[in-house]
Amino acid sequence: MSLVTSERSDRYCPISETSSVSPETMRDVAAAKLQLYEETLHDLLNQQSPDQLSGLYDMPSYDAPFVRDMLGLRGGGVKDFSDIAKTSTDHTAIRNTALNLGFLHEELGDKLEHSGRQLDVALPRDMQPIGDVSAIIVPGGAGATNGIRLLGALAAIQEGKINTSEIILTTCDRPTTEAERKRAEAQGFKSDATEFELCLGAAASLLGDISWEESTLPTPYESNDLTKVHQGWARISTPHGTQIISLSVLSAPIDSNRTMSDGSKPRRANTQETFRAAFPLLDEGGKIAIVSYDTWIPYQELAGLDTFLLENNTDVVAFGPQKTERLTGGSIQQPEQVIDEIVKVYTYYVNLLVKAETRIENQRRIQQYAETAIPDMTELRDAKMRIGYRDIPFAASSGLLHELRQEPLVDLASHGIAGQSYYSRRNATTGARVPSVNKSIYIRESVARKLADINTFLQSPEVTKFFGSAVEVYVEEGLRSTDMQSSLYHQLIPNSIRRHNSDLQEDDIYKRRDEIIAKPSTANNPSPHATGGAIDIRLRAKPSPWTPDFVADSFIDMGHVDGDTGPRNNPDYFEQATPLADEDITTQRNRRFLYNLLTAYGFTVNPHEWWHFDYGNQLWAFVRNYQLGEKAVQALFGATDN
């Protein structure tokens, strides 16, 4: 099937013939296909709606909805379904478009047979051998679709087009309708109550009774459920003799992070989720074949590129049987259905191009964040203690600045951000939870929005692969009460320093205290945590099931020892002490990532604490001015009324 355009615009070569499966390759694949689609669809539109071509843009992402409307597809448009099929000219134009784009084939082989009867489907006569693949993926569908796709997979193996001993049917527990059960029975396939059971029935109809072994697989996306698996074996005849085929039928759960366009929760797993459910059965860097059916083959091909290739580095090629009556006597049956699929795939290619470019940018950002050294903060630490920052002036309270100065506080949970006040649980500073401290964390609304944006970036597959698990921000402190700040400054922090540094003199204890905890607030000189603009933040592996609260052993390693009050807490500690051990190199990388990530979104770090970041308060303005070498930045947030 067509994935990469060759020098001739109407012929293709599989992506396995390209040298890479990187996002850059995917971007080039999508761009080349879009160029071909643009040229082909413009020819069709010129015949169907020549007066509207002037309304098209140069960008495919803008054109997609216009093309759909002009061709009169689902949801209404210039032409209705019935209008498209009226003239032989329309038939010819749509037929040629479908052939040029690889949606249909003109020459078909013999009809596929099942239980001594011929079905009205056949593989393309000119289907080229695909060769060795690790597995054939059979996407689940409605009615007789499962049986027809599985039959196409078996025929490809038996005819020597594909070499594999593994077939994986990817489906879900969607309830079936009476109408689709009747369609399955009409084609000689067993029917049942769910799509998963339809797939089991299709396998039994084609290969006889199979003894299934039931198990589960971990789900490689956010879900509270496991993937249900039935595995069995069957014998088939091939050009090389009898071969044993392994069949795995997977029922994928729904991604708990996915919502429908109206905000509601989905009721079934989609194609991408059912494909992802197969990841644990496949090795990265391999090659799979996806079998589909008729004009739906290009869509399954794209869904495979979107998941197997981009997320699992697994090469993809698609094939499948075509309805023998789709092209008859130089005409085309159900042309509106064909055009609908063409524009759906065109739109998907637009989205895939954007996705590939996003992944390229994500990889660039990850590399930059992990490799850019944290600057030497020795002089900044000295300036913070010698000059101080609590006298930094506040910006004039007028206009937009007045609105920002009055920005409300929000609960982290309202923005889906994990966090629990450090002192609301057992901790190294006090030895036990502080009863007066609530676990909810409040910060300024703009700070919460920035953290939500950071979490969006952290959800990308590239970040997940970089850390080896899905990660998110976790906030341990935001707004802090004046009483708690006073207690920390006068009692709790000095006592903690004494416990961990028994050889320190009292003067040294108080000097160290002043480095790591701010003095309690006064009216015009608030401590950072009294402003709602200061956060103590970490990265953690997302727990499953998810909870916003503290989860032990979930933090990404930053070389932190809870309760330590020494120089190891300095953000640049692992830049000054050249790391030699593997764990220290990882720690240096992780600290760099956190520092560069947060500063990219406008935060500044406390030069004495790698986990303390500020936005809008006096400490933020002080660090910004030090970095700029001038006193141009003024504070935005003062003490809150809370």
Concise overview:
The chain is of the alpha/beta class and 642 residues long. The chain contains 19 helices and 21 strands.
Tell me about the largest β-sheet: 7 strands, mixed
Strand content: 15-25%
User: Which strand order do you get reading across the main beta sheet?
Assistant: 9-10-11-8-6-12-13
Round the Cα radius of gyration to an integer and report it. Answer: 31 Å
Q: What average pLDDT do the residues reach?
A: 86
Name the structural class: alpha/beta
Would you kindly provide a written description of the structure presented here, covering whatever features stand out?
The protein is α/β, with parallel strands linked by helices and 642 residues long. The chain has three domains: 20-44 and 91-104 and 327-371; 108-322, no CATH class; 375-480 and 532-628, Muramoyl-pentapeptide Carboxypeptidase, domain 2 (2-Layer Sandwich), CATH 3.30.1380. It contains 19 helices and 21 strands. The protein has helices at 23-48, 60-70, 81-84, 88-100, 145-158, 178-186, 195-207, 271-276, 297-312, 335-371, 378-386, 399-405, 445-458, 461-467, 482-500, 506-516, 573-576, 582-600, 618-628, and strands at 4-5, 12-13, 108-114, 117-124, 131-132, 135-139, 162-163, 166-171, 213-217, 227-238, 241-251, 287-291, 315-319, 322-323, 409-411, 418-419, 442-444, 471-477, 534-541, 604-606, 609-614. It has a seven-stranded mixed sheet, with helices on both faces. A five-stranded mixed sheet has the order 16-18-19-21-20. It has a three-stranded antiparallel sheet with strand order 3-4-14, covered by helices on one side. A hairpin with a 2-residue loop joins strand 10 (227-238) and strand 11. Mean pLDDT is 86; it is low at 1-20 and 72-82.
